TrEMBL record:
Keywords: Acyltransferase, Transferase. Residues 34-155 form the Phospholipid/glycerol acyltransferase domain. This is Lysophospholipid acyltransferase family protein. It comes from Floridaenema aerugineum BLCC-F46. It comes from the Bacteria. PANTHER family: 1-ACYL-SN-GLYCEROL-3-PHOSPHATE ACYLTRANSFERASE (PTHR10434), PHOSPHOLIPID_GLYCEROL ACYLTRANSFERASE DOMAIN-CONTAINING PROTEIN (PTHR10434:SF66). It holds the Pfam family Acyltransferase.
Length: 239
């Protein structure tokens, strides 16, 4: 059931002739429940991370990806599950993710949100992280959960214009970025570094601090840890 996304990922990288250079592979937990967080500029990021880590990863993807033909087929084959429309509670996603963690599976999130996907950005840049992934990790009732920060540092890529942003607003009017003029970029990696960060372990003692007045502090610390780790790896990987 979970082997097809990994196979599709490997076939996609082979078809695009993408050369992947993996760094710090020894930091990848060999098994168990895992939440992978990464920077995000391309539709290739999910298959790239699956191929690098060597396990199927169930990625949460933007709502519009589940609405647009062709794109919807790709994310389905990769095992992704689209989020709810912008502004709606993500209760369904949280429950799906927790169910996967309880089965010792891997879930993937891109904390920057949609912006770096729908705007032309440089490989070394990264936006601010949303904190939803930290809330998910701290609320998940599994005994041990690893959060694995990963940096995707493009060394060589082809960038083209895919579709007008306003066209995508027909499929997802809830996304404010689709009201902008311009085109949705299509980034295809030719040579790319994937750098594995130091995992952050969520244990029962960590969850004990996720209560009352300490809740915001714990969430902020976890978010900052992952953002700082990925930012430093990204700087290393792009140089």
């Amino acid at each position: 059931m979970y082997s097809e996304p990994l196979l599709v990922s490997q076939l996609l990288l082979a078809a695009t002739k993408t050369k992947l250079f993996l760094h710090h592979q020894e930091r990848i937990p060999p098994a168990g429940s895992m939440l992978v967080v990464s920077n995000h500029r391309s539709f290739m990021d999910a298959p790239l991370l699956m191929s690098a880590i060597g396990r199927p990863i169930r990625f949460a993807c933007h709502h519009y990806m589940g609405q647009v033909p062709v794109m919807r087929d790709l994310v389905t084959r990769l095992g992704c599950f689209p989020l709810e429309e912008m502004g709606k509670p993500q209760k369904k996603f949280f429950q799906q993710a927790i169910n996967l963690f309880e089965k010792q599976q891997v879930v993937g999130l891109f904390p920057e949100g949609a912006q770096p996907m729908v705007e032309f950005t440089k490989p070394e840049t990264m936006g601010e992280f949303h904190r939803g992934f930290a809330h998910l990790a701290l609320r998940s009732p599994v005994e041990r959960l690893s959060i694995l920060p990963v940096a995707i540092a493009s060394l060589e890529e082809n960038v083209s214009s895919a579709v007008p942003l306003k066209l995508l607003s027909w499929f997802d009017p809830s996304e404010p970025f689709f009201n902008n003029s311009g085109w949705h970029p299509l980034v295809v990696y030719q040579r790319v570094n994937v750098l594995i960060g130091r995992p952050y372990w969520i244990t029962s003692s960590v969850r004990q601090g996720f209560k009352g007045k300490q809740m915001k502090t714990v969430v902020a610390e976890l978010t900052d840890y992952c953002q700082t780790e990925i930012s430093e790896l990204l700087r290393q990987g792009c140089n």
